[in-house]
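$ run holo --ligand "S-adenosylmethionine" --emit tokens
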Amino acid sequence: MTANSFTAHNIRFADGSETLPGYVGGLVADTAWCKGAKRLLNLIYGGNVAGKRIADLGCLEGGYALEFARMGMDAFGLEVRQSNYDNCLEVKRRAGLANLGFAKDDCWNIARYGAFDVIFCCGLLYHLDRPGEFIHLMGKQARDAVIINTHFAPHDWYPMTAFKDVMGPLETHEGVPGRWYHEHNGGTVDQLEQMKWASWTNRRSFWPTKEALLQLLQDAGFDLVIEQYDIVGDIHDTLMDPENIKHHRGVYVGIRTKR
Ligand SMILES: C[S@@+](CC[C@H](N)C(=O)[O-])C[C@H]1O[C@@H](n2cnc3c(N)ncnc32)[C@H](O)[C@@H]1O
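-- output --
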């Protein structure tokens, strides 16, 4: 794999070319996660999403940010790793959309980029060591809504629970229950760059329980707090599937209805 190989976001451009041809996960645009986020955004804005400013934090290769831009939103992806950011710039170049932008920065610096209508936080919260503080920060930076796609800490181990060997016991951190998750043993910037999907400098991350995540959203100022189920595809079969259950993952949404 070259430094700039795409790792997960297969994106198709207008000329038919793709970033990861044949990728087993298919196109980002076709995933249930992406389609679910777009449905939710259309619901929040009654279909009038054009011009709404959205941040995609920890955006990896920019596939979700691009789909939001394709909806007409003013999309901004933030990514801490240089190699991932370089791929985002390639996506911007190949997509040729003026309403798509990226910056290379730590998500903790999101306030540098001003206020957003919506913050999309997919696959990032579980890579942070202070998720409560970060949800509070997103609450300050997002006018209307925050969409968080994340793992949460299980109360009990199920026989099939994943990550058992890298997750600690249930304990309290930032005032909420959850478990510490071991990320990596640190290293130089070059070494951190190689771990393209992991946390940045924090060697462990804290995963609140699902109930704690929902409470943190409410405490961050969102009066409507929901879990979005349609993002799994077929709801019953997926929620009953041990392969799904074992990952303890969901989409938690905070919306300000009084705006
Ligand atoms: C598991 S991947 C998820 C990528 C993408 N959001 C998705 O759902 O496909 C986590 C991403 O967050 C980025 N990341 C991790 N810590 C970060 C931080 N402190 N600030 C910004 N990005 C970060 C990683 O480099 C990686 O691109």
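-- notes --
Helices lie at 32-44, 63-70, 82-95, 131-141, 189-194, 210-219, 235-240, 242-245.
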